[in-house]
């Protein structure tokens, strides 16, 4: 028997990092990037192969010293009710580079849960998938806001705010009236989300009066961004991207590579550009007029050292 599961990649349009601190954020899945899992019966199982990421692992118990992928595999098997020694092989493949801010760990988690649940013939509700995603993303990122896996599990454009002591969780879909064309650049250097989030937490706790207004301003952009997205006002979306980039830079997570990409995208006529994801290595998105324009901006980014760029669209 063979069972499959899939999940798209995502980009954060507004609110990375500030979302960890209780602000709203917007993320959207990509129409042409993602991962898929294929589960087959195998007497030598359980085994999880990820040829593109150079990994082939067995599940491991939740010993914190153990690598994240084997632990996530063990958690996923248990979550769908399969035994730790299940005789199966899972292959996860796709076109998402890891650790650059495209939601590879969230897509991996959701695709794995979907594939294993199909193999176990256990239907997963949306709530199950969000709960399983929280558990698996916790292995990769420690204390994730939930933005990544919620967006990847629901698909499309999502306005999200995490629950806190003084606020309820908010999750709502944003309907896009037309495709949004992006140019995206990623550097070869991977960022470490867990470390970047922890460092910012310390800095924000040490200087709350410096950081609180920045987080608030980023949160306000999510509301503005939702209106621009619903109205199909890409020029305004671009301006809001530019403002968000300046604010995320103030948080200390941008890199020279990101700054160069943002500058190059704007010079090539993008409507606006910003860092996307945790930063620290770097991915940048630039909103463009149409597909032709997005390809031209991507070509301009491709000229930068160690940058891989492409045009993509947001999943409506
Ligand atoms: O770079 P990514 O795709 O791992 O996104 C991280 C987003 C953060 O806001 C920095 C962390 C979080 O938990 O939301």
What features would you highlight for this structure?
316 residues; alpha+beta; Ribosomal Protein S5, domain 2; Alpha-Beta Plaits; 2 domains; seven-stranded mixed sheet; four-stranded antiparallel sheet; 9 helices; 25% strand; globular; binds (3R)-3-hydroxy-3-methyl-5-(phosphonooxy)pentanoic acid
Model description:
- The chain is built from nine helices and eleven strands.
- Helix 1 runs antiparallel to helix 3.
- It is globular, with a radius of gyration of 19 Å.
- The chain starts with a strand and ends with a strand.
- The mean pLDDT is 94.
- The structure holds (3R)-3-hydroxy-3-methyl-5-(phosphonooxy)pentanoic acid.
- (3R)-3-hydroxy-3-methyl-5-(phosphonooxy)pentanoic acid binds next to helix 4 and helix 5.
- The site of (3R)-3-hydroxy-3-methyl-5-(phosphonooxy)pentanoic acid has 15 residues, from helix 4 and helix 5.
Q: What's the layout of helices and strands?
A:
Elements (H helix, E strand, L loop, with lengths): L1 E13 L10 E17 L5 E4 L4 E3 L10 H12 L8 E7 L9 H16 L6 H16 L5 H8 L2 E5 L8 E5 L6 E7 L5 H14 L1 H24 L2 H17 L5 H12 L4 E4 L7 E6 L2 H12 L4 E7 L3
Parallel strand pairs: 3-5
Antiparallel strand pairs: 1-2, 2-5, 2-6, 3-4, 6-7, 8-10, 8-11, 9-10
Helix pairs in contact: 1-2, 1-3, 2-3, 2-4, 3-4, 5-6, 6-7
The structure holds (3R)-3-hydroxy-3-methyl-5-(phosphonooxy)pentanoic acid (PMV).
């Amino acid at each position: 028997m063979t069972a499959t599961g899939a999940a798209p990649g995502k980009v954060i349009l507004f609110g990375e990092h500030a979302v960890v601190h209780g602000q709203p954020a917007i993320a959207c899945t990509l129409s042409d990037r993602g991962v898929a899992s294929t589960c087959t019966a195998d007497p030598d199982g359980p085994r999880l192969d990820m040829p593109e990421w150079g990994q082939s692992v067995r599940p491991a118990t939740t010993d914190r010293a153990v690598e994240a992928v084997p632990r996530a595999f063990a958690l996923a098997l248990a979550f769908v009710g399969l035994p730790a020694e299940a005789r199966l092989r899972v292959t996860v493949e796709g076109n998402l580079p890891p650790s650059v801010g495209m939601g590879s760990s969230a897509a991996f988690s959701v695709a794995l849960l979907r594939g294993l649940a199909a193999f176990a013939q256990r239907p997963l509700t949306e709530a199950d998938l969000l709960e399983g995603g929280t558990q698996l993303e916790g292995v990769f990122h420690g204390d994730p806001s939930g933005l990544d896996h919620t967006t990847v599990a629901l698909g499309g454009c999502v306005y999200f705010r995490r629950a806190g002591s003084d606020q309820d969780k908010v999750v709502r879909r944003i309907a896009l009236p037309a495709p949004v064309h992006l140019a995206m650049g990623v550097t070869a250097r991977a960022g470490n989300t867990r470390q970047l989030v922890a460092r910012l937490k310390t800095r924000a706790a040490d200087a709350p009066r410096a950081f609180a207004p920045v987080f608030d301003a980023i949160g306000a952009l999510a509301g503005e961004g939702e209106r621009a997205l619903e109205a199909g006002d890409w020029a305004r979306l671009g301006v809001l991207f530019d403002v968000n980039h300046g604010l995320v830079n103030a948080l200390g997570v941008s890199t020279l590579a990101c700054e160069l990409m943002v500058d190059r995208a704007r010079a090539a006529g993008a409507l606006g550009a910003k860092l996307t994801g945790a930063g620290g290595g770097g991915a940048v998105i630039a909103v463009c007029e149409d597909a032709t324009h997005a390809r031209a901006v991507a070509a301009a980014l491709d000229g930068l050292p160690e940058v891989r760029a492409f045009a993509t669209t947001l999943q409506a």
